[in-house]
Amino acid sequence: MTHESRLYLDHAATTPLLPEALAAMEEGLVHWANPSSPHAEGRAARAALEDARRRIAAALDWDGEVLFTSGASEAIAIAATRAKVDRHIISPVEHDAVLRAMKDAQRLTVGPRGRVFGASLDNALRGEGRALVTIQSVNNETGVVQDFDLLAPLVREAKGLLFVDASQSAGKMKLPDADLIAISAHKLGGPPGIGALLVKDLTMLDASGGQEKGYRPGTENMPAALGFAAALEAPRMWLQRAADLRRELDRAIELAGGAVVAKEAQRIPTITSYAMPNVAQQAQLIQFDLAGISVSAGSACSSGTLKMSHVLEAMGWPVARSGGVVRVSFGPTITRKDIHRFVDCWKAISERAHSNAPTVGAAGA
User: Fold this and answer.
1) Residue 364's pLDDT is what?
2) Helix, strand, or coil here: 63?
3) Letter string b/e over residues 186-205, b meaning 16 or more CB atoms within 10 A of that residue's CB
């Protein structure tokens, strides 16, 4: 009997390190020195770090500042606590890192397609004081793309600051016209443990002292920065293939009786979520894993009790449907064979449930 290798369809969680990024990091480690040291080795490390910074800005077509962080979560925390604003406004479908950092923020509303209503933002901006408006470019659960052609001008007119979490879109889509942008290397084939806060004008932030022009203390991770730059510069021709395969997968899941989350919305090619009728999310995840397929949750499950995803709840999905949603996300190596394998497994799990056969993971549910 042949043994199939595992199929990794959880690139929205993290994408495996690209060969270009690994090679760049190895070179950086060979020549590692503290970039803040005044000697020749330190100056060489500083030159490499600054070169990586310039390359990242060029790859993203960003003409502002690039402040290195430990990842998108730290970039979000810096923007949340140090932007010179009076209040916070966020969309209700933001990543948990935003919800944690801005617990008291005013929340906007979204429609069934997961996109922020312009009227909701316009109304929120009428409040007192300058606002930091935080809206992700691409949702990490559904892949829905926000309409910044509509939203950004509203923030500008109100003299607010627009902060975008572009963790899922950087390197795959053009950056939106924002004042602050959070990005993460490991979401696009770079190393874990490094990200950046892109800042249009440093006067928008309170400084903290230390490295990164006084805005982020700590020794800079030069090897990771080199890997970050190399990952961003790697070709992305595979995105068109991913878009075609995602459409094919959407059709196959619907034909098999499933539902595509935010089907009518503009979505990035790399992320999609599906609802499987009458099969709990936890049972699906276990069965996919046993079949050698890595996917992830579209909602959270805690202590055996299904909790509705805050994203799906904001979009108006009923609790019964949200409980059976899983997320599928693509990377550079995705093929049509991979899609067929996932669909075959999805059908098998669904058919077992509808035939009333015991499902793996159902015991004790």
Assistant:
1) 34
2) coil
3) bbbbbbeebbbbbbbeeebb
What is d(CA 334, CA 238) in angstroms, rounded to the nearest whole number?
A: 8
pLDDT for 302 beyond 80: no
Amino acid identity, position 76:
I
**Size (the chain), residues:** 365
Q: Which residue has the tokens 């799990």?
A: 349
Residue 353 CA from chain centroid, whole number: 32
Of 33, 59, 234, 301, which is the active-site residue?
301
Most distant CA atoms of the chain, gap in Å:
72
C-alpha dist (Å) from residue 352 to 86, 357, 364 = 54, 5, 18
Q: How many CB atoms lie within 10 A of CB 36?
A: 13
pTM: 0.92
H/E element, 132: strand 131-134
The string of pLDDT tens digits covering residues 127-179 is: 999 999 999 999 999 999 999 999 999 999 999 999 999 999 999 999 999 99
Residue 301 among the catalytic residues: yes
